[in-house]
Automatic annotation (TrEMBL), chain A:
<feature type="transmembrane region" description="Helical">
    <location>
        <begin position="332"/>
        <end position="352"/>
    </location>
</feature>
<keyword id="KW-1133">Transmembrane helix</keyword>
<feature type="transmembrane region" description="Helical">
    <location>
        <begin position="269"/>
        <end position="289"/>
    </location>
</feature>
<feature type="transmembrane region" description="Helical">
    <location>
        <begin position="309"/>
        <end position="326"/>
    </location>
</feature>
<feature type="transmembrane region" description="Helical">
    <location>
        <begin position="185"/>
        <end position="205"/>
    </location>
</feature>
<feature type="transmembrane region" description="Helical">
    <location>
        <begin position="146"/>
        <end position="165"/>
    </location>
</feature>
<keyword id="KW-0813">Transport</keyword>
<keyword id="KW-0309">Germination</keyword>
<dbReference type="Pfam" id="PF03845">
    <property type="entry name" value="Spore_permease"/>
</dbReference>
UniProtKB/TrEMBL annotation, chain B:
<dbReference type="InterPro" id="IPR038501">
    <property type="entry name" value="Spore_GerAC_C_sf"/>
</dbReference>
<keyword id="KW-0472">Membrane</keyword>
<dbReference type="GO" id="GO:0016020">
    <property type="term" value="C:membrane"/>
</dbReference>
<dbReference type="InterPro" id="IPR046953">
    <property type="entry name" value="Spore_GerAC-like_C"/>
</dbReference>
<keyword id="KW-0309">Germination</keyword>
<keyword id="KW-0732">Signal</keyword>
<feature type="domain" description="Spore germination protein N-terminal">
    <location>
        <begin position="22"/>
        <end position="189"/>
    </location>
</feature>
<keyword id="KW-0564">Palmitate</keyword>
<dbReference type="InterPro" id="IPR008844">
    <property type="entry name" value="Spore_GerAC-like"/>
</dbReference>
Length: 366, 372
């Protein structure tokens, strides 16, 4: 009956798994995206995005509470019937697969621009796949532990970043609400997508040891993410001029470029290498739940066969086709759009019917 | 068998890491430490590099080349044809512009590669040379370290004493795009036997050269920009009734131990008003005339603050006349009078030259040195 007890997550791992999945490529680009729309008021939009994400997260945990021992993959056939359920699983599998692929090619693209301009993309992505396999073969618990480890490993980042504080201009943040609330609302649309990752509430719930902490945990994860984004955005706004920041594709990386120590000249390279760990905590859960969905679809217990296939397919795909920077941008848009459906719309639409059917069930029993 | 396969896989991974195609050996590189761009009489672009030579057989410790080219990236080709290794831009310490080049409004576009190519160092100090660049790059002083290192240290130490600004390439990028302030950079001059820091070059909104301010005025500019940063030592003339004939002039020197700056921004009758209020804590380090400090220290404080106030006003007036705002008053205007600033932001220097700036300084003498 209890299918997932052998592979349990502690509350901290659950929090950091979701938090890790949220903090990804967005950190590098979000200061520019917000500044383009709302200038230096963009940080207010983040609060709106956080509020929306947290509310939907609570809906997700509430929905999953109705089936405490099941992931979304097991629930789909229950409520939609066998065939419709299967189609839904296929969609879920495609969504996770697309997200994982988008993350991998974007990480490769950034590496190709910043560090290894001569190394072909498929070599870089092949270097990613081997460690990925070692972590993912261990299942959800290994991912949880990995997310926890990476979290500790990246705690130095805010301290080094304080060296940039000498050259910040806090005046840039004033005045508050420059041109009214309209641009802030506009910008909050793009922040809604930066919080993507909480949809792992669909998957992680049955693995959680102490299920009563699920809603609290997901709120903490979202808030932790909010703090990361806020600190990055505020420092970038204060460091770059509001007229200038839109010139940079990845302002957060440029911030690191300017930091220089007597004994270390290019901190950005060090940061970018560490950043690959952070990025991996985003990509890993998507890859895992992609192969998890597909192997469940075929009724297989072991996900490793599909995992090997997936990790082989990505470098092979890149061997034949290297995405251009426009493709990368479009791919993120596609993922964002899909995320809007799967992470925001799906729980809001499904919550009502699930609650009603559960209540009816209980009524029958009584 | 399984362990063997894993070890094989891991060693494959390790060999691939070193084999990335971006690998380059240090002995095959030529690290350009100083790069210069200039215009000749025929308005052709000239590019210069100076890079260290790490070779026991070579007598000279650094190599310098100048070539004609049209962009920085294109010039790299020309350098690679001449220098021993492959030219690398990741370690550039100084970027020197010819003064003649800075007369052209689109010179900043030449630096595109600095910001576009992630491998370029954006931490290079920006400087302008008064005179033709080949004089600087041909300079081989016997009593100094390698030229590029010498110039780098010269700018850094002069900046520590606040005799000039230290504008790194990334900071220049900010100043160029920031509508509320105008860029500044270090100005150098090649003298007969030395390279000299002559002060700070003020640029206009579009980046063209506007004027030079002396090291003395740079100290004032720096306190307006950063309050206290590094060492601030000021010498000013004090008028004290004195009928004796003497060789020393009536000067007083002091360290500035701390600066507190408050700016009040208002908009009245169609012009911006900036009330700058300084609180300076100073310590006297040199006094060239007799004075009873114990009795009259209040009077001395007033005299110093009057003199400083006058100097500040003179500097600001000068900047307003030439159409430059190196102080970033526009940032205050944007922060506190956003509506009015928005109307003039595209021509901020004009609004600034029309603005009313008032400087008030309160000096308090905290130290009088070791002797009375």
């Amino acid at each position: 009956m209890k299918k997932y007890t052998y592979n349990q997550l502690s509350v901290l791992q659950y929090i950091l798994l979701i938090h890790g999945a949220q903090v990804g490529i967005g950190v590098l680009t979000i200061p520019r995206e917000l500044a383009e729309k709302a200038s230096t008021d963009g940080w207010i939009s983040l609060l709106i995005g956080w509020l929306a994400a947290t509310l939907v997260s609570l809906v997700i945990t509430n929905m999953m509470k109705q089936y405490p021992e099941k992931t979304i993959i097991d629930i789909f056939p229950l409520i939609l019937g066998k065939w419709l359920g299967r189609i839904a699983i296929v969609f879920m599998f495609i969504y996770c697969g697309v997200a994982a692929f988008v993350l991998l090619i974007n990480a490769t693209g950034i590496i190709n621009v910043w560090l290894l301009s001569q190394t072909p993309a498929y070599v870089v992505v092949f270097l990613f796949t081997l460690p990925t396999y070692f972590v993912l073969q261990g299942g959800v618990r290994a991912i949880g532990r990995y997310a926890e480890l990476v979290f500790y490993l990246t705690l130095w980042i805010p301290f080094v970043l304080t060296t940039a504080y000498r050259e910040v201009h806090w005046l840039n943040l004033l005045p508050l609400i420059k041109d009214g609330w309209h641009p802030i609302w506009e910008a909050s649309k793009s922040t809604v997508l930066s919080f993507l990752g909480f949809e792992f509430g669909y998957f992680a719930y049955p693995f959680l040891q102490k299920k009563q902490y699920a809603p609290l945990g997901i709120v903490i994860a979202n808030t932790l993410t909010l703090f990361v984004y806020l600190s990055v955005v505020v420092v970038c706004f204060a460091y770059f001029s509001p007229d200038e920041i839109t010139q940079y594709t990845w302002p957060t990386l440029n911030l690191w470029k300017a930091i220089e120590f007597r004994f270390l000249e290019r901190v950005d390279i060090l940061f970018l290498s560490t950043y690959m760990f952070i990025l991996s905590t985003t990509a890993l859960p998507y890859i895992y739940f992609c192969v998890f969905s597909s192997s469940q679809l075929f009724g297989m217990k072991d996900h490793r066969k599909h995992l090997r296939l997936f990790l082989l397919l990505v470098p092979v795909a890149l061997l034949f086709y290297t995405p251009s920077f426009i493709d990368l941008k479009k791919s993120i848009q596609i993922w964002s759009f899909a995320g809007l459906g799967f992470a925001y719309a799906l729980p809001l639409l499904a919550w009502g019917p699930i609650r009603l059917s559960k209540r009816a069930e209980r009524g029958e029993k009584a | 068998m399984r362990a063997f396969a894993q070890i094989l896989l891991l060693s494959l991974l390790v060999t691939m890491l070193t084999g990335c195609r971006d690998q380059i050996n240090l002995e095959d590189t030529t690290l350009s430490l100083m790069v210069g761009i200039d215009l000749n009489e025929k308005n052709e672009l000239l590019f210069y590099i100076s890079s260290p030579v790490f070779n026991r057989e070579a007598k000279e410790k650094s190599e310098e080349y100048g070539i004609r080219s049209s962009t920085i990236r294109e010039s790299r080709m020309g350098f690679d044809e001449r220098v021993t290794g492959l030219t690398q831009a990741g370690k550039i310490q100084v970027l020197v512009m010819g003064k003649k080049l800075l007369a052209h409004p689109d010179w900043f576009r030449l630096l595109d590669v600095v910001f576009r190519d992630a491998k370029f160092s954006v931490n290079a100090r920006m400087a302008v040379l008064d005179g033709p660049l080949h004089e600087l790059f041909d300079f081989k002083p016997k009593d100094k370290p390698r030229l590029a290192i010498h110039v780098t240290t010269l700018i850094d130490t002069a900046n520590n004493r606040n005799l000039t600004v230290k504008t790194r390439a990334q900071e220049l990028h900010r100043q160029m795009y920031e509508k509320g302030m105008t860029p500044t950079m270090t100005e150098l001059k090649k003298e007969k036997r030395a390279v000299k820091v002559t002060g700070t070059a003020l640029l206009k909104q579009n980046g063209t050269y506007a004027s030079l301010i002396e090291p003395r005025d740079t100290i004032l500019l720096q306190t307006l920009l950063h309050e206290k940063q590094g060492e601030l030592s000021v010498t000013i003339p004090i008028k004290e009734p004195n009928d004796q004939k003497q060789i020393s002039k009536d000067r007083i020197s002091f360290f500035i131990k701390g600066v507190k700056k408050k700016v009040k921004t208002t908009y009245q009758n169609g012009r911006f008003h900036f009330d700058v209020h300084f609180n300076l804590r100073v310590s006297i380090s040199e006094r060239m005339f007799p004075f009873d400090m114990e009795k009259d220290h209040k009077k001395m404080e007033r005299m110093i603050s009057d003199e400083l106030q006058k100097d500040y006003m003179k500097l600001i007036k000068k900047c307003q006349e030439i159409g430059a705002d190196p102080f970033g008053f526009g940032l205050y205007a944007r922060a506190y009078e956003y509506k009015e600033y928005k109307k003039v932001e595209n021509d901020w220097t004009k609004a600034f030259s029309n603005a009313k700036v008032e400087i008030k300084s309160d000096v308090s003498i905290k130290g009088n040195g070791v002797v009375k």
